[in-house]
Design brief:
By secondary structure, the chain is α+β, with helices and mostly antiparallel strands. Helices cover 38% and strands 25% of the residues. The protein has four domains: 153 residues, Beta-Lactamase (2-Layer Sandwich); 100 residues, PAS domain (Beta-Lactamase, 2-Layer Sandwich), CATH 3.30.450.20; 71 residues; 143 residues, Histidine kinase-like ATPase, C-terminal domain (Heat Shock Protein 90), CATH 3.30.565.10. It starts with a strand and ends with a strand.
Length: 490
């Protein structure tokens, strides 16, 4: 199904809500196509071509009569008189049995969709008449339901803006099960799939002639779990969705009230067994909660390890050993902060700016030995893949710590963190991270010694992040470390 929306936007005569109503129609007319066993086409007036096809939908209950897509094309000459007549009369117009294609005899109906007394568009229904067999009761009932909905369209009563537009999985379709009610909520007809769906809820032999509300009430065991919309749905009074659950079986229900100019004369209730869908959703919810709990517990354990390292460092008499334990404590704390962020959501990406905003200043403060160190950030990291968050956070933590301890060397100064997202020459997304300080600068090449922290940084950047790293002298004094990571490899 496709929709050609430019003519709607260009048409100046539409009133408030008219375009939205047509979009609502196209979003829900698969229901009518399935009930009518027919292809539906939506025609809109065009100043040059007469009418243009805005949308086309094929039925899922039978074969299509149009194998090619004609959305955006002008109306055929043999179809235009019928559409013109429906547009002017604001009533359903039916053609005689006519062979519009070489191989298919079709019955065509033109249905004007009227809102606030004005015709907005015309829907044509194309039903294949090549089958000569007698229609079953199911087919006759379905076609009557389709006619009732299309008739409501000529009165501006369908589609209804009160209908839910949510995308929750398990929305029932015609083939899943259909029940037709009278004005009192008594079942006039139930399709075989509809009867089977309710039979799975309990010992229901038949539905016809019974009040659907009473049947549903008799099936509910735990009334504390009843959806508050259920009574209005099973009586067909409101165009809503609801669910009923019994004996481990869940049915998704959708009601479509049937109305004429004066009153509601019945309703359609679509039903679908969504037990397996809900079971899988519950499994996912359980797994999501478990993953969050794991991240939370890992964070707690890492914080405990960091606290133990801090306590042990205070007992150390060797200054070198004390510094080593403090560095290990900072690294563990950085990883714990990442797990705390991961425990708050399950998205595949993480807002790294929120995470690093806390860690950047904390890393600088912990590494100071009495001097005043200012921190400044520029640019945005944005959303990053969760698998690169931990190594990148560790790298930044090590570089900031190194800048404070060695670059500034017990003197006051500033550490900058700059992030930029861009594309490289090949068009691939790239993240560039720069950590700078205005300290003593890089030592001479012959006196350089790569400690454990810088070895960790180099390993994480090249192995975990698949990026590159380079150290340079900062213009104006100090050191600049530049990291380049390609995000399309994540």
């Amino acid at each position: 199904m496709a929709i050609f929306t430019d003519p709607i936007r260009e048409h100046a005569d539409l009133g408030p809500g008219d375009a939205e109503w047509l979009h609502l129609l196209v979003g829900d007319w698969q229901l009518v196509a399935d009930l009518a066993f027919a292809d539906l086409a939506l025609w809109f007036p065009h100043p040059e071509t007469g009418y243009i096809a805005l949308a086309h939908v094929r039925p899922s209950t039978t074969h299509t009569v149009f194998h090619s897509d004609f959305v955006g094309e002008k109306i055929r000459g043999d179809l235009r008189p019928l559409v013109d007549k429906a547009w002017a009369s604001q009533a359903i117009e039916r053609s005689h049995e006519t062979s519009f294609n070489a191989d298919v005899a079709m019955r065509v109906e033109a249905v004007p969709f009227v809102r606030n007394g004005r015709t907005l568009a015309v829907v044509t229904s194309h039903m294949d008449l090549s089958s000569s067999r007698m229609p079953s009761r199911l087919e006759l009932t379905y076609r009557q339901c389709a006619y009732d909905l299309l008739r409501m369209g000529t009165l501006g009563l369908w589609p209804d803006f009160a209908s839910p537009t949510g995308s929750r999985r398990g929305a029932p379709r015609v083939g899943d099960g259909l029940i037709r009610l009278d004005a009192d909520g008594v079942v006039q007809y139930a399709s075989p799939n509809g009867v089977s769906a309710f039979r799975r809820l309990g010992g229901i032999e038949s539905l016809e002639g019974r009040s659907l509300a009473e049947v549903a009430a008799g099936l509910i065991k735990d009334r504390r779990m009843v959806d508050e919309t259920l009574p209005l749905v099973v009586t067909g009074r409101m165009p809503w969705r609801s669910e009923i659950e019994s004996r481990g079986v869940s049915l998704s229900l959708r009601a479509i009230p049937l109305r004429d100019e004066h009153e509601r004369f019945g309703a359609l209730v679509l039903c679908r067994d969504v037990s397996e869908l809900r079971r899988r959703e519950m499994e996912l919810v359980t797994k999501d909660a478990t993953i969050r709990e794991i991240h939370h517990r890992v964070k707690n354990n890492l914080q405990t390890v960091a606290a133990l390292l801090r306590m042990q460092s205070r007992r150390m008499k060797s200054e070198e050993g004390k510094q080593g334990l403090e560095q290990a404590m900072r690294r563990v704390a950085a990883i714990a902060l990442v797990h705390e962020t991961l425990s708050q959501g399950l998205a595949q990406t993480v807002d790294f700016d929120e995470l690093i905003g806390r860690q950047f200043r904390l890393s600088a403060e912990v590494a100071t030995e009495g001097q005043h160190v200012a921190t400044e950030r520029r640019g945005e990291f944005g959303e990053l893949p969760s698998d690169c968050v931990t190594p990148l956070a560790l790298v930044i933590n090590e570089l900031v710590t190194n800048a404070v301890e060695h670059g500034l060397a017990r003197r006051s100064g500033t550490v900058w963190l700059v992030a930029e997202r861009r594309t490289d020459a090949a068009g691939a997304p790239v993240l560039e991270v720069v950590v700078e300080d205005d300290g003593v600068g890089l030592p001479e090449a012959k006196s350089r010694h790569e400690g454990l922290g810088l070895q960790i940084v180099r390993t994480l950047v090249t192995s975990e992040l698949g990026g590159t790293i380079e150290w340079n002298a900062r213009e104006g004094g100090g050191t600049s470390v530049r990291i380049l990571v390609r995000l399309d490899h994540r």
